[in-house]
Structures are given as structure tokens and as C-alpha cells.
Amino acid sequence: xxxxxxxxxxxxxxxxxxxxxxxxxxxxxxxxxxxxxxxxxxxxxxxxxxxxxxxxxxxxxxxxxxxxxxxxxxxxxxxxxxxxxxxxxxxxxx
Amino acid sequence: xxxxxxxxxxxxxxxxxxxxxxxxxxxxxxxxxxxxxxxxxxxxxxxxxxxxxxxxxxxxxxxxxxxxxxxxxxxxxxxxxxxxxxxxxxxxxxxxxxxxxxxxxxxxxxxxxxxxxxxxxxxxxxxxxxxxxxxxxxxxxxxxxxxxxxxxxxxxxxxxxxxxxxxxxxxxxxxxxxxxxxxxxxxxxxxxxxxxxxxxxxxxxxxxxxxxxxxxxxxxxxxxxxxxxxxxxxxxxxxxxxxxxxxxxxxxxxxxxxxxxxxxxxxxxxxxxxxxxxxxxxxxxxxxxxxxxxxxxxxxxxxxxxxxxxxxxxxxxxxxxxxxxxxxxxxxxxxxxxxxxxxxxxxxxxxxxxxxxxxxxxxxxxxxxxxxxxxxxxxxxxxxxxxxxxxxx
Lengths: 94, 393
Known about the structure:
The complex is a heterodimer.
Chain A: H1 2-16, H2 20-23, E1 28-32, E2 36-40, E3 45-48, E4 52-56, E5 61-74, E6 78-89
Antiparallel strand pairs in A: 1-2, 2-6, 3-4, 4-5, 5-6
Chain B: H1 2-11, E1 13-19, H2 23-32, E2 37-42, E3 47-53, H3 57-66, E4 70-77, H4 79-88, H5 90-107, E5 112-116, H6 123-133, H7 146-156, E6 160-168, E7 171-178, E8 191-195, E9 199-208, E10 210-211, E11 218-219, E12 224-227, E13 229-230, E14 238-239, E15 243-259, E16 261-279, E17 282-283, E18 295-302, E19 306-307, E20 310-311, E21 314-330, H8 333-351, E22 357-368, E23 371-383, E24 385-389
Helix pairs in contact in B: 6-7
């Protein structure tokens, strides 16, 4: 039932051209060059290593691979990551 | 980013090293509890370094205890911590207070007087006049009445037509404008033209007025050459503005006597440099005797500490002393003749009117014991006409 409501919501928002990240709280990822990533609406850090950072995005887990990775700042819904980014896996099933 | 960093610095922040087996959980707890942390560094598997606001340190302690972790404050950075140090060190605070009050005190005074716009008048004379009025370096700004000083300066210095005073920082700027030469007598004022020197009229161009003399006439100083008064029988006297260009032959004779033996001050080559340090116009060090009996002195002053127009009253004066020695020398006849000629020519040039042409110059030298007597005779052609307001009867 919940999946159906979600699908309906997404369809409605797409038709009305509203920003889904604001209304549904869907994750938003911004990549700047190969050294900065900003993630909004995250649900926490799962793993934090210099070579790999895993972040919970409610529906999936984002895995960032690289070297000298570090969390630049963190507050209630935004995480900013800096370092040499090599790979990003957007969908890793929970 | 710089603004955020400045803000963090002003509010104060701490660098903390956390040892825990649940690093990720701790990070999530910060996020959930709305604790802003930045600059997270994973040092090892169990160690993490974070930066956070000084105010949040008490909140974080609870979370640390919850996760059975340990924390250690590595560094405290920011303005609140500096102020804390000052609070504990009373003597330091005292020094700061004295320093600030001194800086404030120095800003309330004038430490430099700058005079601009002078052409013929010397700055030294103006400074002396200002001192007479009561304006000197070190005067308080609150006691300064700018309009009064402007008025007094114009009264004391006749040659000034304008004086404007502006204060910029601890600098007082006086803008001066010298009075222009007295204007010529223009029409329609009735005037005569008189001779300002004796001579023989060489050439006359009378544009307006009635000539009293003709070419080749001998005229004396003060004689009316061209009159503005028109007299005709049966008619009333009329007065006009005389305009004429009158050239005359004039002669000058000057005498001078210069000794062959002369006292000449010469530099011996000895040179000493003194530095004087002034604070608020007071010499900080003992003033010693002058290094030489006879000397030539040059001074350069400098204000090394200044912020824009605010000058800190700390002045360094460099004085260069060059020793001089009096030597009685017997000059050769040619050298003395040259001196005579130079001085006589200078005297003639001072007296000669504008546009004057020297026709002939003759110098006669005479030996008189240990001296040379020189006489110069000069024949010139120059303008001798000067306008004067006609006295109406």
C-alpha cells in the first residue's frame, strides 16, 4: 500500500513540476569536480574510512570510493565530503 | 568559507580527539542531535578528530558517555580563549588599557601641520605666525577653533588672501592662497604717467593721454610724462586714462670694495650624524653639546608610525653636522675681480625694470692697499613709465 502511495506521489509531483527532494525528502547529491560531494537528506553515515564512505539514503546506500576521504562538515541533513573521489555506487540494496 | 571560519574564530571552537569503537554511530548521533561538527579526520580505526563549537562541548560529553568512548581536547582556538587569558593576567590587561588610552589620547591632538599653496611666502614664517596665534604641534583638537584661526591668520599675514583649515586624522592641513599683486589701474580711472627713473627719452608710443615730453628730452624721477588732463580754453577740464609705452636711456653707477684677504668657511670633511627621538614633541634622550664649534646642520624628520592620516606622535629626527673651519685666504686678483663683477651685476639686475636691455657695461678696477675697488657703469634702455591716479582739481 505504501509503495502505491509513493508511486502516486512521485507521479503527482512530476506532473506538477515540483522539486521532489524538498517535498518527499529524496536524497540530493551534488558533485563538484572530483574532490567534493554534498549529500542532502541523508539518513546517516554507515561506514567512514579514508578509502570508502557509505551513506544511508533511505531507499539505497551510496558508496564513495577514493583516497584521503574526509567528512568536511555534518549537520542534521547535509553531509559534505572532501578528498580524491574515484568511484560512486549509487544503488546498493539494503 | 572565510566568513564562516572568521565566525567560528570569533565564537571560539575546540579540536577534539575521540577514541571509540563506534565512530559512525557517534557521527550519526551528532547529526541527529543537531550538533554541527566540521573538519572530521579519521586518524585510525578507533580514533577521530573533530572540530566543534565551544558551546556544544557539554552536549557532546553526554553522547560520548552514551557510546562508552573517550575524548581529549587537543586545542582551544578563538577569541573567547584569548580574552580568558587576558582576564587571568591582570597586569597584561592593565598594559592593554594603558596602551589603548594612550592611543586614544594621541588621536585627540594635532601632531603635524601641513601648509600647502605657498609660492613666495615661506612655510617657516607661516608656522611662526601660527605659533603667535596659539596653534602649535601638540594642541588639542577640542580647543581648536578653525574659523578663528583662519581669520587671525589672514589678519596677521597681509600677503595671504585665503586660508582654509581642515583636520584629517592627527594632521592639520592649511590651504593658503597668496594675494595677487595689486592690479593695474584700468579704465575708466583718470591717470597720469610719471617717470620712475631719470633718463633721456628714447622712444614714445602714446595711445591715450597728452604727452608733456618729447623724444630726446631729459626727464627726472617723478616728472609727469603723459598727462590725463585735457585743458582747452572755454571748455571744462577733461580727464582721460593715459596709456603709453615710454622707453628711456638710463645710466647706473655702482661701487664695491672687496678685500684680497678673506675669511672663508670650508668643510673639514668631518661629519657626524645624530638621531633624536621625540615622543609628543618631547626629546626622549639627553641632549648633548654640539659636536663642533662651527658647523653646518641639515635636519630630516620622519614619523615612522602612521595609519593613513593618523600619525602616531613618535618622531625621529636625523641631524647631519658638517664641521666648518675658518681659513684666512689671500685670493688672487683675478678671483676678487670676478667676485666684484658678480656682485655688481647682481645689484644692477635687481634695479633694472622689466624688459630692460643693457646697451653697454664698463667695469673699472682699482687697487687699494689689500683690496680691489670696482666701479660699474651701465647704460640701458628700459620702460620708465608708471601709472598714477590723476589728482582732479
